[in-house]
Amino acid sequence: MYEYRYPHPALTADSVVFGFDGRELHVLLVERGGEPYKGCWALPGGFMKIDETIEQCARRELHEETGMENVYLEQFHVYSAVDRDPRERVVTVAFYALVRKADFRLIAGDDAAKACWFELDELPPLAFDHHEIIKMARERIVEVLQTRPIAFNLLDRKFSMPELQAIYEAINGVSYDKRNFVRKMASSGYLREEGQSSTPNHNRCSTLYSFDEDRFRIDRAAEPRPKRNPFNP
Predict the structure, then answer these.
(1) Tens-digit pLDDT profile for residues 93-144
(2) Which of 172, 191, 174, 171 is nearest to 182 (CA)?
(3) How many other β-carbons are positioned within 10 Å of the β-carbon of residue 218?
(4) What DSSP line would sit under 13-32, residue for residue?
(5) What is the pLDDT of residues 58-72, one digit of tens each?
(6) Is 41 in contact with 117 (CB distance < 8 Å)?
(7) How many CB atoms lie within 10 A of CB 194?
(8) Helices (H) and strands (E) in the chain — how many of each?
(9) 14/137 Cα distance (integer angstroms)
């Protein structure tokens, strides 16, 4: 049997899962049940098995530690600092996801003692270099939002214009003029009116919209070169 005479680093996957509560961005964390950093909060993730891909590892660890499955994960960076894990030489591949919090019931498992959502701007002390990973993940979704309508992944299928504005402001960390925002979104051509909300807000029922994803995908596929996201305010 062939034996490789050079030491191998271990490979892990970590997932930054963003959720939205209508007001603030949240990130999903798990409380570590074992050493190192036992009792500290961390991103869901773990070591890749010899018979799986890094993408399969990310999905498996997310399911084992939080109960979440069928989540679209997108890879965004590799972290390879020599001393990032006190156990051994570990390289991690980081993924991000944007989900509707209401679609999932968190169930901690495997080596995670708890699984909870935390406001992105009020995170507890984290294990390893996970603060750095979350910071870069947030920068990544701000960048992606310039070219892709990813904000709709965080909203219910039917949403109000104030809810859409709130998620753009939460991601970008800025405030938008209401009239300009509504005009920009309405001019995109990809929002369908879905009637009035059954829940009054300030004694008024908001108009509900949905994102015409099929039309957006067809139009984008027909373009010779990708254009700027029409939803970018």
Answers:
(1) 999 999 988 887 777 666 666 899 999 999 999 999 999 999 999 999 999 9
(2) 191
(3) 10
(4) EEEEEEEE-SSSEEEEEEEE
(5) 999 999 999 999 999
(6) no
(7) 14
(8) 5, 10
(9) 11
Determine the length of the chain. 233
Backbone phi, then psi, for 134, in 5-degree steps?
-65, -40
CA dihedral 82→88→92→97, nearest 10 degrees, is -130
Strand, helix or coil at 41? strand
Tokens matching residue 180: 């300009």
Q: Please give the radius of gyration of the chain, using alpha carbons only, rounded to the nearest integer.
A: 20
Residue that is written with structure tokens 């070169």 in the block? 225
Confirm if 38 and 76 have CB atoms less than 8 A apart. Answer: no
Residue with tokens 């990973």: 133
Tokens 């270099």, located at residue: 129
Residue 229 tokens read as 């996201």
Amino acid at 138: R
Kindly state the helix (H) or strand (E) to which residue 63 belongs, with its residue range: helix 54-66
Residue (of 97, 93, 75) closest to 84 by Cα position: 93
Between CA 227 and CA 213 the distance in angstroms is 16
